[in-house]
Amino acid sequence: MKAISITVLFFGILLSPVFAQEAITPQTILNQVSAVDPYIREVRGYLHQHPELSGKEFETARYIQAEVAKLGLPVTKVPGTGFYVVLDTHQPGKTIGLRADIDALPIPEYPENLKQAKRWLSQNPGVSQSCGHDGHVAILLGTLKILNDLKDQLGGKIIFIFEEGEETGSGIDAMIEALKPLSIDAIYGNHLRSNLNTGELYIQEGPIMAGTGTVAFDVIGRGGHASRPDLSINPVFAAANVLTGISIAWNNQRDITKTLTLGITQLQGGEIYNVIPNSVFIGGTIRFFDGEAAEKGFEVLRKVSEDI
């Protein structure tokens, strides 16, 4: 866990009117970060051992909320497992949001990394914190502890946002609706990056984390017994042709100057070897930085699928 990550949040906020800058210096913040570092490591370790999938972060939410309760701050729950916490200084100032995601991924965790056995290992088989959300939550809770200690020197309000299901998008709509009445002026966040050395920061003008869109459709055929394929319309072969067509069109019809990636992750059809299924499901995601490029990518997928 890198203490430098939490510092990024603080220096970002330091530029906003939330801080009374004549009273709080960067060195004050660094000292606070060093003091809370063991707590951040402890939280991250616990969450790494107890990952939960998107929309099912029940124990994760309870754990975080219990930590918030120790500070005497109210929790506002959002439909699902997400929630937010308001730190109100009761002084004039901006309303700033700080956000973290709380879910994990359906990926088994190996007990060793590239160098040695891991200190913290998932105790939930088949689920792991493979995207660093345990670190994000730990950083946000550490930030909450420090800013709560400094609240008499702050102005405005700080909203600590714990979002359900970032990996699947299950919690974003409910969270946006819940936050609308708060009139937040700006939202800060960060993301762990494993290929950065400790102490290094990566800051970029413009989009830095890709948007995502879901690819999900059925190839419909007509099922039947495998002994008479001539009486069926086999969607397995059709789905194979769709994927081949997509791979060719994707490389030749999209704007190569704009980052747009396609990851097909699911091809599901049939439950037994001697029955031709009625349909085959194809699923995946696209990742993008430009909305127009994303829509053109989806159009390529639609055209190829419909033509075949």
UniProtKB/TrEMBL annotation:
Alphabetically ordered keywords of this record: Hydrolase
GO MF, one annotated term: aminoacylase activity
Gene3D superfamilies (UniProt xref): 3.30.70.360, Zn peptidases (3.40.630.10)
This enzyme's EC code(s): 3.5.1.14
Enzyme class: hydrolase
A Pfam family it matches: Peptidase_M20
Protein name: N-acyl-L-amino acid amidohydrolase
Organism annotation: termite gut metagenome
